[in-house]
Structure formats: structure tokens, C-alpha cells
Amino acid sequence: MALGFSGSNGGIGEIKDVVEKNLLEVSYFINNSCNLNCKHCYVGYNKKEDELGVLEWKKVFEELINLGALTFGNVGKEPLLSWEKTKELLRFFKEKRDKNSRLRFGLVTNATLLDSEKIKELSKLMPTYIDISLDGTKEKHDFIRGNGIYEKVLENIKEINEINPELSKRVFISSVLMKHNRESFKKMIQEVSSLGVKHFLISPYVRSEKDSSNDLLLDVSEIIGFYKEVIFGKLFSSEVSEAEIILKNDFDTLKSVMDKCVEEGLIDLENLFVDEYTTIFSKYDFPNKNRVIINFIPKNQTFSKEIRISHDGFVSNCYAQFFEDYPKRKEIVGNVKEKNISEILKPYFD
Predict the structure, then answer these.
(1) Number of neighbours of residue 229 by Cβ within 10 angstroms
(2) DSSP 3-state assignment of 273?
(3) Residue 94 pLDDT > 80, yes or no?
């Protein structure tokens, strides 16, 4: 999901004039468990059993690489709860990247379970990216994720930088834009940037089936107002340099926002860029080498370019996991326990 609903995928690659097609981006759930109970979590699918094993995952990933997949993201539910499996698959991808430097892999984590030992192991594996969830400053973040979480995450980010500054350069702060936290990002970016982290992703909250209120939800006009502030450089304080903010759009859940960005000229269709992984975007450069990216998805790319695989093998888009009846959703096109992934995806490549 290049700059889509789940994670950074390592951000923007090298800008290209000519790019390949069908460079699959794969997000996968190593488990369906988490140590937090965040107010804005979108995952409605509750089943935790029947996880794919390491060998099953490797078989699926081998096939996907043969199909042209270059990007793999361990997006959930909390990868560090399954650290041995997560580590083994990161090692698998590192070996593949040693043979093909364009292959990208990483993980999305709330970072509360990081420790010095895991950071040292990650330093050996050097994933392309580590997305760490942080939803504003201390008060705002802890309101969503629990008391004391913000300070714990910042301690771990600081430790990453102390143990391996090069690994810090691969950290992306992944934030959800909500009604209560929209004014807190400038301060958060300043605080985290001082710890050696320079990449920030912001995506609007999408209401899930579990959310019976509108307390967190911004309407399209409010989101666009925030995007304008970002694009005008208002989130960069004078102390921040060489930072990048990515405003993430998604076709399935945020198309109305993306369309409004085009209408308002925030995404300039006459001046778009494309990177080596076929991510399309507009970019804005600011003093102190700061930059803002906003991506554009011209059509639905599910299955032809991007897929999600659940912990128990279902192949779908991201949005299907919002619902408790996930295995019955029409968006699911197969299960890798029953059919090879290449066979499941064949109709989308013919």
C-alpha cells in the first residue's frame, strides 16, 4: 500500500521517468493480537487462531517475489508480540534484499515492546523501515493509547538513536489525524525530530464498525484545512531540518479526501512525480531541507498492485478487516492455505 492505509513502505523511492507495472506491495498480519486497546483501531476481525507458520509465510512470499513483489510490510496486529516469527521473516527478506537491492521490507509497531536486545537485532537486519505509531503529543497520544505510552515510546525512539543512529534514519512516525489531535503535530514533530527521526506520516482517521460515535472523526473540509497547513509549511518549526511529512491518501477509504485535494490544487495533476515503486505524488520543498509529500492514486489498485494477507491466510484489501465478518466479505479473493497465491492473483495479472 504505497503510502496507503497501512504504513510507509519506506517512503518515496528514486524518481523515475519510466516505471514498471505490477510491482506488488504486500502487507501482512503476522498475528491478530495487540498489547494495547487503542480507541481508533480499525481492525474489526477478532479471530486470533490459525496463524500461518514461518514456513507457510516463506512459501507465500517466494511466490509473490516471483510475481514481481518488491515491498513487504508486517503491519499487524502488533508484530513485536510475535517477535521470533517476525525476526525470522525479516531475516528472510534481508537475504532476498542481498540478492535484489530494490526489495523493501519493514514493520509497523506501537513500539512499547521494543528493548535494547530487539533494537540490536533490528540493527543487524536493517529493515527498510520501522513505522512507529505516535498520535500527537503526550496528552493526545495517551488519550488514544493509554497513560504512560507516549513517554515509553519516546524512550525507545531515543534508545534506537543511541544504539544505532543509522537505524533511526529508517524510522517513520506514523500518526492518525483526528479531531482531538490536529493542533499537536507541530510540537510532536519538533520533539521527535530532536531524537534523530526525520520521517513523519499522517493519515486521517477512518471510522470503523466498532466506533459508535463521531468524537474522533474529521469531515473532509477539516482534513483539507489541515493538509493546507502542512503544505504551506506550518508544521515545520525553525528548529526542524531535513524532515519529511507524508500526507497519506487511500483509494478505498479516503478517495473523497484525495479528490478534494485535486480540486483544491493540493495535488497538481500537471506536475506529478512517480518513483521507482510506481508511487505517484506531489511534493513541496521548504527551507532547512524540509519536504512535504502527498500521494495520488488514480484508480483502484487492489490485487493488481497491492494486497493484504491476514494472519490466517485470507487475501483481500485493507478495508475488509474493518468488519467482524471479515472471512465472509466480498473483498476476499482466496486463502493461501487453500490455494497458491499466484493462482489467487492470476485473474488480476492476465
Answers:
(1) 15
(2) strand
(3) yes
Interstrand relation of 129-133 and 244-247 (parallel, antiparallel or unpaired):
unpaired
Task: State mean pLDDT over 104-109.
Answer: 97
In a domain, 114, yes or no: yes
Would you state the pLDDT for residue 20?
A: 59
- DSSP summary character for residue 322: G
CB 176 within 8 A of CB 205: yes
Which of helix, strand or coil describes residue 98?
helix
* DSSP conformation letters of 148-178: THHHHHHHHHHHHHHH-HHHHTTEEEEEEE-
Compute the average pLDDT of residues 28-43: 95
Instruction: Note if the bond before 77 is cis, omega within 30 degrees.
Output: yes
Q: Is residue 68 helix, strand or coil?
A: coil
User: What 8-state DSSP symbol labels residue 15?
Assistant: B
Predicted local distance difference test score (pLDDT) of residue 11:
87
Structural domain boundaries, residue 100: 25-348
CA distances from 292 to 11, 243, 244, 288 (A): 12, 9, 6, 12
Q: SS3 of 77, please?
A: coil
Give the model's confidence band at 108: pLDDT under 50 very low, under 70 low, under 90 confident, else very high: very high
Q: Is residue 5 part of a domain?
A: no
The pTM of this model reads 0.94
Q: Are 131 and 107 in contact (CB under 8 A)?
A: yes
Mean pLDDT of 218-228: 97
Query: Which are the contacts of 330, defined by CB distance < 8 A and separation ≥ 6?
Result: none
**Grid coordinates of 318:** 485493507
Q: Are 21 and 67 in contact (CB under 8 A)?
A: no
Please give the mean pLDDT across all residues of the chain.
93
CATH code assigned at 111: 3.20.20.70
Give per-residue pLDDT as tens, 311-323.
Answer: 999 999 999 999 9
Residue 9 lies in a domain: no
Task: Provide the H-helix boundaries in the chain.
Answer: 54-66, 83-99, 116-125, 138-145, 149-163, 165-168, 185-193, 220-231, 251-263, 341-345
